Amino acid sequence: MRYKTPTRNSEFYLPAEDYRCAVHWCLRYPGWLAELAIEPDTSKAITYDKERVQTSNQFNPVEELAVRRAELQEKKELLEQTVREVDESIYSFLLLGVTRGLTFRQLEGRGIPCSINYYTKKRQEVYFKIAKKI
């Protein structure tokens, strides 16, 4: 997947490094969904059926998992909300394009209801807004 970075004259101009960072950050979305879909193993959680419950500063896998899942959920919601802000009418197509790297031609086969110029502008706007937020 190769997109031209927006030029300096574009309203959505970003330095090439920031643009690529935003593109690759968005491409991590399917991995976040997959990780969030895994049912957490809470078998190592503290149980209160024993006589004494002691706390320690040792690694707590349940806490670590909860923090990781919360971070992933925040990232997922940030991306979804940004795509909705940009254009609610082509939300699902825009989300597919920025998170899975689908080209306009592939989206056209799925029935995208807009032109390539409109889609390209909206995709650049998503990357611009994401780069400002991350």
Describe the overall structure.
The longest helix has 26 residues, at 61-86. The chain has helices at 16-26, 29-37, 61-86, 91-100, 104-109, 116-133. The chain starts with 15 loop residues before the first helix and ends with a helix. It is elongated and about 65 Å long. It has one domain. It contains six helices and no strands. The protein has 134 residues and is an all-alpha fold.
Which oligomerization state do the chains in this entry correspond to? single chain
Task: Write down the overall geometry.
Answer: elongated
Q: Indicate the structural class.
A: mainly alpha
> Strand portion, in percent?
under 5%
> How are helices and strands ordered from N to C?
HHHHHH
Number of helices: 6
- The tally of domains stands at 1
Largest sheet: none
The N- to C-terminal Cα distance equals 22 Å
Layout of SSEs?
Layout: H1 16-26, H2 29-37, H3 61-86, H4 91-100, H5 104-109, H6 116-133
Summarize the structure.
By secondary structure, the chain is mainly α.
Q: Which keywords apply here?
A:
elongated; 134 residues; mainly alpha
